[in-house]
């Protein structure tokens, strides 16, 4: 049995639901699942449909990390039957741009599927104007990429409600995240902070799409999913640190830019060419150990994530 098969078997063991499992056993399995996500990652085939029963292994892991159980398919169908929501036009425009050039994604997730899910979400939340925010299309897309439509809807709703409630309430958590990134830059890399200050550059100007999407705007999606795995396991607050990690890794390139703005939004959205393993390693080994305790509390709280 190869390494990939061994890893797959370990995930399947931890995800297996045994009858009569005591709460301690369930909690222990969840803790081990999180550790496996962080230290080993998921197998390369984890996003493939059929890699775990009829669904994908990654989708099954996400549901376990979110505590998603039985899905009420009829409830989702009823929401869909209500038709276009008050935010339909905004949703349709954003969906047309969401991973539109990502062939693997578009071959599995038709635009109308993402439109249905987002409209159903607005209906679920009272069909009030401005319920939908632009970042939601990029955040919802990976769930549909990995799960059936009803599973994706429920999982995404739980994700928004419990993991990033302040990110999807007038972006207040996203603005906090941008301000925190600025504080972190000033504390951890005063020279880079000063370089940005010379051009009056703040994270809201160059990192807002990255922070609001928890890094999911960086392609390829298959690589960025690895960072969302870790955020689902250990907290959505890590998203802003991963965005900072990309800056730290690109520091040399940024500092060499002369006579013009050293960074633009597009630079962040391309991830500077660094992959998830590089970003994860930099963040965990170089950034987090340097953050003082008071500031790290701000980092942990800024998304509004609900406690266990």
From TrEMBL:
<protein>
    <recommendedName>
        <fullName>Rab-GAP TBC domain-containing protein</fullName>
    </recommendedName>
</protein>
<dbReference type="InterPro" id="IPR000195">
    <property type="entry name" value="Rab-GAP-TBC_dom"/>
</dbReference>
<feature type="domain" description="Rab-GAP TBC">
    <location>
        <begin position="52"/>
        <end position="235"/>
    </location>
</feature>
<dbReference type="InterPro" id="IPR035969">
    <property type="entry name" value="Rab-GAP_TBC_sf"/>
</dbReference>
<keyword id="KW-0131">Cell cycle</keyword>
<dbReference type="GO" id="GO:0005096">
    <property type="term" value="F:GTPase activator activity"/>
</dbReference>
<keyword id="KW-0206">Cytoskeleton</keyword>
<keyword id="KW-0963">Cytoplasm</keyword>
<dbReference type="GO" id="GO:0005856">
    <property type="term" value="C:cytoskeleton"/>
</dbReference>
<comment type="similarity">
    <text>Belongs to the BUB2 family.</text>
</comment>
<dbReference type="Pfam" id="PF00566">
    <property type="entry name" value="RabGAP-TBC"/>
</dbReference>
